[in-house]
Amino acid sequence: MTDRLIRGRSPTPADTAHAGGSRFAQSDAPLVVVEPVKGALRLAGLNDAADGLGLRFGMALADARAMYPRIAVADADPDADRRMLVAIADWCDRYTPLVGLDSPDGLLLDISGCAHLFGGEEALRRDIVVRLAQQGFQARAAVADTVGCAWAVARYADDNVIRGRATSSPPPAKGRSRPSSTGYAGEGQGGGMRSRREQAHPLPTPLPQTGEGAERARGTLLVPSDRTREVLLPLPLAALRIAPETIADLTQVGLKRIADVIDRPRAPLAARFGEAFVHRIDQAVGRVDEPITPRLPVPPYVTERRFADPIALEADVLGTIDHLARELVKLMERRGEGARFIEVALFRADGKVHRIVAGTGAPLRDAARIRALFVERLAAVGDEYDPGFGYDVVRLGALATERCDPAQTGLAVSDHSAAELTHLIDRLGARFGLRRVTRLVPQDTHIPEFAVTAVAAATCRTMPANASLELRSIAPQRPLPRLRGRDREGACIMGGASSPPPQPSPVNGGGSRPSLRQRRSVPASIEQDSLSPVRPIRLFERPEPIEAIAAVPDGPPVQFTWRRMRYVVTHAEGPERIAMEWWRDAHGHALARDYFRVESREGVRVWLYRQGFFNDLTLPTWFLHGVFA
Amino acid sequence: MASAASRGALSHLRQALATLDKVKGFSLVEEDTLALGLPEVDAALGGGLACAALHELAPVAPAQFGATAGFALALAALRTAGGSSALYIQTDFAALEAGALYGPGLDCFGVPMERLILLRVPRPVDALWACEEAMKSRGVAVVIAELPEAGEAADFTATRRLTLAARAGGGLGLLLRHRPLPIATAATTRWQVAAAPSTPDRFGGLGRTAFDLSLNRNRSGRCGRFIVHWDHHERAFLPQALSVGVAAAADDGSVDPRPFAHAG
Q1: In the CATH scheme, what architecture does the domain A4-76 have?
Q2: Could you identify which of A196, A233, A394, A460 might form a hypothetical disulfide with A259, taking C-beta atoms 3.0 to 4.6 angstroms apart as the criterion?
Q3: What are the chain A neighbours of B208 within 8 Å (beta carbons)?
Q4: Contact (CB<8Å) A494/B107
Q5: Domain total for chain B?
Q6: Domain parsing of chain A, residue ranges
Q7: CATH code at B62?
Q8: Do A432 and B126 touch (CB under 8 A)?
Q9: Would you call A451 and B104 a contact, using CB atoms and an 8 Å cutoff?
Q10: Does residue B183 fall inside a structural domain?
Q11: What are the pLDDT digits (tens) for B233-247?
Q12: Selection from A415, A602, A28, A2 nearest residue A15 by Cα
């Protein structure tokens, strides 16, 4: 999936398919988009030329072909349409952070408190339509108090229906802001919001589709606050967003317009046509609140900068981020918060939006460090993002924040280095991904592979060293299973296993949740008996198969071959039996490993284990699991 | 005898010279050193391992990477004894080839896993970049970077950058290679590490971890070869394992009654 917006402009029929016939076709050739409906191919979209020929939505392709055999046909691609809609929604983010999808072909924007930044609601509405037209989309946009009303007007109202007082000053929008940078307070939207609905695709409506989309932008679709009801009255019932069956039922009894039903007694209507129908009426006139579900989380803190001349150089982008970060820090400072996730949204002039997110390990409220994070992020992802003609809006938002009390800077070096360490982890995480910077956290299991897990250092709050040591010392010790005596003298068995048997993961094992019940997975009794460390410093992810010669049945190896090198064992400690928790092998035997710490003549110290026993049924196999210092 | 004033002036001049002399590989300022606690080694190093510097470690033979990492971790254990943190950078391939660090083993070895931050990077150049950034930062006291193979990415230029970064941040940088690199680098010291046979305890078990260190290049003193032991309980190097019992189990000539078997 490449850039839909760019591809949308290309005139080939295949590319225009995804947006139906909605764009101003550069070519005047009639084009229709078809999709299978109930076994027949029907028209799902057509361009202006096709519309002019008298073709209509829902018409069977066979009929259309019968009328115009040479008509160009393309297949509908709902997935591509949806991606396109999402891309447009991303682009609309420049107007308001509250953009909701109204699939398949509409977007809902909550412009409360945003309109004045663009010179008023009408100017904003016009700006959207004109800019979309420049990108090749024919759109209708309406501004109204309620989602329902905006939806109805955008799709069904005559362009000039709202004349008269449309030029009067719109009611003051709520919200507080400054012209260049806006601080969205993040409180929920109350009632009486002004919502705008815009539609990027043509309508299956009986509207006279004359003129170009740019012309259409001239007609105003701005519903003044006090005229919601009045505007809705002449519209058809389909404008209420109700099911076609309900519309058919209503038409049967002679109710065709909203004016016909809006004042009728509610109880009989609800009883006959369903509660949903009445609910839709209430939503349209504003008796019931209908919030817009934003597609993206609305950041609690946002700053942005707009450019008349798009910027494309990395240095310019970073400089802008630096400026924005300072403003963001001021906003966060007022509430005593710091950012945990910060997002930079780069709005490319041609409609594409690049979003770059950086996470932090601790609440961050330092402009220089925010900038440093994005230096790394841009270095890491820079090549993926083509600035093209440049970015005309740069927005910096704190997606997640946490309380961040100003810390008193101590004179002690440790305070300083702790902050430095957090910052270092953030920067390394920004460059390589936070999951690559890890700390090791012990787990409550004695199985070597799962005894420790790597947790992202940014999410893992370090326990004070003393506390963890105390926890460990009081942790209960798990008794080792006793070695069963084996009386059989095994025969000489040659084995050739190439890989260790599959080791099922424990249900919760290896999980990412750091357990607070940290304990040492090495029983202290073993450790006391040995002068050398009892666990290797390096462990192989998959134990490596080796060949070994060992005393039967349970002796340590006297010689082994690993990576084509032969080692003669001079010292060995073991066996230390480690049994799996509950799983069994194919024969129903408990899986157990006998581990040995061995040292070769050269001094190489490794951790080996024998899987299985010497008997008639199973072949013992030897693996090298880790390396000591 | 120099007066206090002239001594101060001398120190000031040394500082000034040191800032001018960054390009050169040595500095006149008295450097922070990490004493290993072994008179012989410390004397060769001129008081101890220079802290704001880069040191290179490589195994004598491919199978000795355990010992190489062990020596680096032992140095990290000494350096972080005050509670500071260490960063261990490993490329994905190095982890696949030589195994990943194992937390319980680190605990046993004397490096508490809470002190350690691990970073996995895809390419050797990323490891070098991260190493440089980490050494510039004062957040970590030790940075260990492990490169697979001979670590060709860390050539003279790259190690020079790392040395400068170490000097700027005052961190101890340890560069681990899986094979020694034959060409010259800007590292302050270069070591080849092998595991030395340990002195077994009286029951015939494994003794303390022992290293056979070859100091092949040393900017501030002579080279040499040392056998050192690591006491993981005390977190200290020992010059020679103390005798802990009889030499070996007496061999009375009796044959172990158990047969041997070869298994793969």
Answers
A1: 3-Layer(aba) Sandwich (3.40)
A2: A233
A3: 531-532
A4: no
A5: 1
A6: 4-76, 96-285, 301-430, 437-629
A7: 3.40.50.300
A8: yes
A9: yes
A10: yes
A11: 889 998 865 544 444
A12: A2
- Contact predicate A110/A193, CB 8 Å: yes
Whether the ω angle into residue A406 lies within 30 degrees of 0, i.e. cis, is: no
> Over the stretch A203-228, which tens digit does the pLDDT of each residue have?
333 333 333 333 344 456 788 888 88
Write out pLDDT tens, residues B37-55. Answer: 888 889 888 888 998 899 9
**Cβ-nearest to A555 among B98, B133, B258:** B258
Q: pTM for the complete prediction?
A: 0.69
Tell me the nearest-neighbour CA distance from A612 into chain B, angstroms: 11
Instruction: Judge whether B13 lies within some domain.
Output: no
Q: Which two tokens stand for residue A179?
A: 């012209």
Pairwise CA distance, residues A573 & A520, whole Å: 20
Which of helix, strand or coil describes residue B54? strand
Q: What is A301-430's CATH number, 3.40.630.30, 3.30.1490.100, 2.60.40.3780, 2.60.40.420?
A: 3.30.1490.100
Q: For an interface test with A, which of B71, B87, B114 has the most A Cβ atoms less than 10 Å from its Cβ?
A: B114
The 3-class SS string of A281-303 reads HHHHHCCCCCCCCCCCCCCCEEE
* pLDDT tens-place string over residues A356-396: 988 888 888 889 999 999 988 888 876 778 888 889 899 99
ipTM: 0.84
In terms of residue numbers, what domain contains B100? Answer: 31-201+215-237
Residues on chain B touching A496 (C-beta within 8 angstroms) = 264
Helix (H, G, I), strand (E, B) or coil at A366: coil
